[in-house]
């Protein structure tokens, strides 16, 4: 067992946190954590990020109810990235209703939608 | 098919690129791309990043030979993160010799090594 030191300094206080479905291995999203959001994630067992656009703590799923229950967390070799294996409540991580935020494949300089849409965003967030 | 627009501005010219094994789904690493490294990745079909520490283009595997052959690329909903599905030459993405850079699990505020070591770094990079 080693000492846990997360290097938040290198990215000006933020590190990327990759979120992966704990059962299927599908990469659902990537977001950022600062020390406070990491502390809240540990404390609550639910993924909590730092919203760069809103400049505030962001409990994933607080509006939609689509929380992410953290099953395992891994740290990378440079101590400046996290990998969260989660149970995605509601089945979709993306606010567009797709299971994964990475629902577009890049092909020949264009994008094509290939993901699975799980919900209608209008029903979840209001029209 | 949609127009491809990657938003490099939001992260001061850099976006995170998550690298996943195209067959097993294991998350191997995360690194950063600027517009030039993305162009080089597209052009060559091999993962090329921007090294924040060395402040230069970094063809992954240029020293070790452990190149990453890009099989598919996905773009996230905010246009500011990429997911690369790759064939990892040599079987290991991490300079420590582990298959994945995320070879340590965080348990009770400490880290434990759980990954698979594929090579001895001394043999690959010199002692």
Overview of this protein structure:
The structure is a homodimer of 127-residue chains. Chain A has 127 residues and is mostly beta strands. Chain A is built from two helices and nine strands. In chain A, the strands form three sheets. A four-stranded mixed beta sheet of chain A has the order 3-2-7-6. In chain A, strand 6 and strand 7 form a beta hairpin. The termini of chain A are far apart. The mean pLDDT of chain A is 95. At the A-B interface, strand 1, strand 2, strand 3, strand 6 and strand 8 of A face strand 1, strand 2, strand 3, strand 6 and strand 8 of B.
Q: Which secondary structure elements does this structure contain, and how are they paired or packed?
A:
Two copies of one chain form a homodimer.
Chain A: E1 2-3, E2 15-21, E3 27-33, H1 35-44, E4 48-51, E5 56-59, E6 68-75, E7 82-88, E8 104-107, E9 110-113, H2 121-125
The arrangement of helices and strands of chain A along the chain is EEEHEEEEEEH
Helix content of chain A: 10-25%
Order of strands across the widest beta sheet of chain A?
3-2-7-6
Number of strands of chain A: 9
Quickly count the helices of chain A.
2
Content of β-strand of chain A: 35-45%
Overall mean confidence score, pLDDT of chain A: 95
Give the overall shape of chain A. Answer: globular
Task: Summarize the main sheet of chain A.
Answer: 4 strands, mixed
Cα end-to-end separation of chain A: 50 Å
Uncertain stretches of 5 or more adjacent residues of chain A: none
Structural class of chain A: mainly beta
Radius of gyration of chain A, rounded?
15 Å
Biggest interface, residues from each chain: A-B, 42 and 42 residues
Based on the structure, what is the oligomeric state of the protein chains?
homodimer
